[in-house]
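job 3f2a | input accepted
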Amino acid sequence: MSISTEGDSVAVIDSNHSGGTTEALLERGRALSLPLLRAAVDRLAPPMDTVAAYHFGWIDALGNPADGDGGKAVRPALALISAEAAGAPPEAGVPGAVAVELVHNFSLLHDDLMDGDEQRRHRDTVWKVHGPAQAILVGDALFALANEVLLELGTAEAGRATRRLTTATRKLIDGQAQDISFEGRERVTVRECLEMEGNKTGALLACACSIGAVLGGADDATADALETYGYHLGLAFQAVDDLLGIWGEPAVTGKQTWSDLRQRKKSLPVCAALAAGGPASDRLAEVLAADAKATGTENPEADDAFSEEEFATRAALIEESGGREWTTQEARRQHATALAALTGVAMPQAVRNQLTELADFVVVRRR
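job 3f2a | predicted structure (367 res):
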């Protein structure tokens, strides 16, 4: 494999695995989990059922049936593969896949509101269409549904899976709290940023990679190894997200240009650039310090004063300081660490290949 940061390429390229296989795995995850996911959402009282259906892309803002972008479905795919890693059929992992997807979307609904994001998956976010109150309520409801889907199985494995899911959810919330607190600080260390991203993204992806195995009867050692794979895969996933949050193409990502810079996020490229030292790093620190003063609580409308050129200048300073290259290499390091965690786990070679395939996909995606 090799790394490129030219143009829109942001991570590992020249993979030895077939992209066609990846799409098949993602589609299988969607197909097997969708009936149970829709059945869970149908339990919600109106209008929450409709609001959730809009969020998942099943209907449009007027309530008409739609074939919207429901997301990449990486987590459901991983949950099904983890069941196979334990020697169980993929169907054994479906409740885990749905539970993780419900928690993931609970976090998206709340994050969009807290971050002020108006676009997700190429259309208006739930809070923009249905209001902040519905975004909060539906997010809470999805979290409750996630636990219901698992616990109603009534098995010892379901109890073990639920414990892993609730722990991952608590870490996810910790990560979101850390992320928000970082926005008001002039500097955040790379170590702090990695800890936050390990909580916000790594924990739930780690859960996805172990929950199917737990439901399939795996012992804790196997589940823990799969969880370690997922945790580092989550860090690789987030490193790529951080690159796309600054340099991603809006037509592909479905978000605004320089979206993370607009929100003053202390993402990995920013933290790495500030830690690098040198003229560009020092200039970036000065600019961000001035931004923090200009966009404080006393002047919440100041964001409107920034031009596209100014955001482009910030992105250029981050790149000149080495933040883009460092983050690209970090995605590769985390990718390698994830795969290394699978070394001692006994599983069919075909399943091992699938986990490698999805790891490669995570770091070559453009959205």
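job 3f2a | Strands lie at 2-3, 12-13, 119-120, 123-124.
job 3f2a | closed
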